[in-house]
Design brief:
Length: 466
């Protein structure tokens, strides 16, 4: 796995403004997408695991990631679902991906019915389905919300395809106690979102922006599905909870810090995350599009957070002082997890992919809105893309879709997204296209769990957003 990071010269060749270079870059991204699909599928339904289980990584030691994490699996299956529904996916591939998704439904139901220490909040299982009873940061209540989000979209597609029978038997029906996967997850998150839980990074217990955001999206999307299946009592209850969560979410923008903080009311876990600035906030925006658009990719509080994250990671990793394109981003500035133990934290592939995807979705979002309004919150973000905007006189002004600067600014947003992808290309294995979890902050070599399934899933969702 130790292949040198790509040379600076090659990077510049791949990532420069000439149209030839841009085509080459797009080609390289596409080639890597094919490899990522292949590597992602290798980690699903391993030969010693149950059908529908997802390895976080094939690594069994330093670290041992040979488990099915509810969160990782849901995010990976979201990529599988999206791929399955693309019109240019060949029919035989579609059929096999649909089988994979249905296997995942079966394995998920098995997980829900397995006795564990924290019930539905249990973060991970052995790949044969046994519960995990060692010490761990639990519960982690984002898992059931993410699983519901993926499966609601799958259910809606199955209904379109005429497979309502499968949906009602395995995914959603109104019976209580719940017998179906989505209903079980929705009932759980609808009743437990006020309780503290461990965060996505499995380190801090408290109330998290990410968890509330994914829970709210799951409840709203779930309510739509419930309505279409005639369960209007439940949909009303889910929407009411979503409304209550909305009030809580708005408290996470810290005006004195100028960004959305990750956690409030910490009660346990590590205590050195002083900034409370965390890539996970942006991942939430990507993983949980809200029906009413709040905290979407053009929200100025989201842009303010993205800009703080960019600036912070630029300074703390020495590889960001070298001449690579773009930047390498990590989880949060105080991170100490090195991929196997505690020393110093590093950039993560999925963080770079997440930032790129945010930029791509932001460009599409502004295009759809037909305007960009500059505010005190988002101006620093735009000024970092275009120095002409580095004057507070822009606050309150609006660029409209017809103006030439509007198009130029959108191009700059996409270009910045590309720089994060170019950076990813520079650090992966140059021969095989494999990606681990992390990138050493000083040398640029990969480290941590090899072939992290989430690295591939996040690569793919970024490319699809492009
Ligand atoms: C393993 C967790 O998965 C990781 O997120 C965490 O940073 C380390 N343990 C250290 O607590
Ligand atoms: C550590 C990450 O922090 C966590 O989010 C993830 O679920 C596990 N590794 C497994 O990939």
């Amino acid at each position: 796995m130790r292949s040198a990071p790509i040379t600076f010269a090659l990077c510049v060749a791949l990532f420069s403004s000439s149209s030839f270079a841009r085509d080459k870059f797009a080609e390289k991204l596409e080639e890597q997408a094919e490899k990522s699909k292949e590597y992602l599928l290798r980690n699903i339904s391993p030969s010693d695991g149950a059908l529908g289980s997802v390895l976080a990584s094939p690594s069994r030691k330093d670290p041992d990631y040979y488990f099915h994490w509810t969160r990782d699996a849901a995010l990976v299956m979201e990529a599988v679902r999206f791929w399955q529904q693309q019109s240019d996916t060949p029919e035989n591939v579609k059929a096999s991906l649909l089988k994979t998704l249905k296997d995942y439904v079966g394995f998920s139901r098995k997980n829900q019915n397995t006795y564990t220490l924290t019930g539905l909040g249990e973060p991970k299982f052995y790949v044969d389905g046994r519960g995990y009873f060692e010490a761990w940061g639990r519960p982690q209540n984002d898992g059931p919300a993410l699983r519901a989000l993926t499966l609601v979209k799958m259910a809606q597609n199955l209904i379109k395809m005429g497979e309502t029978g499968f949906v009602k038997t395995y995914l959603y029906n109104s019976s209580l106690p719940a017998t179906t996967v989505i209903k079980t997850d929705l009932e759980y998150v609808a009743h437990h979102w006020r309780e503290s839980s461990f965060d996505v990074w499995e380190e801090v217990r408290g109330i998290h922006f990410y968890n509330l955001l994914v829970t709210r999206a799951a409840l709203l999307d779930g309510a739509t599905l419930a309505d279409s299946l005639g369960d209007s009592g439940a949909s009303g209850f889910y929407r009411l909870q979503a409304e209550l969560i909305k009030k809580e979410l708005s408290k996470f923008f810290d005006a004195s810090k100028g960004y959305i903080v990750a956690t409030m009311n910490r009660t346990d876990g590590i205590n050195y995350k002083n900034s409370n600035l965390d890539m996970v906030v942006l991942l939430g925006v990507l993983h949980a599009p809200q029906q009413d658009g709040i905290f979407g990719p053009t929200d100025d509080r989201v842009l303010a957070t993205a800009e703080q994250i960019r600036k912070t990671f630029k300074d703390i990793y020495s590889i960001n002082q070298k001449n690579f394109p773009g930047l390498a981003l990590g989880r949060y500035p105080e991170d100490k997890y090195d991929g196997a133990g505690i020393s110093t934290g590093n950039p993560w592939f999925l963080a770079n992919h997440g930032m790129a995807e945010l930029y791509y979705r932001m460009a599409k979002g502004f295009e759809k809105e037909g305007q960009i309004k500059f505010s005190a919150k988002n101006l620093d973000f735009f000024a970092s893309l275009d120095s002409h905007l580095a004057s507070s006189s822009w606050v309150g002004k609006t660029l409209k879709a017809g103006q030439p600067q509007f198009k130029t600014l959108l191009q700059k947003i996409v270009g910045a997204g590309d720089s994060y992808m170019a950076r990813t290309l520079a650090h992966m294995n140059q021969e095989t296209g494999e990606m681990s979890e992390q990138i050493n902050r000083e040398s640029g070599y990969m480290q941590g769990a090899n072939n992290l399934t989430w690295s591939y899933a996040s690569y793919l969702t970024a490319i699809w957003a492009r």
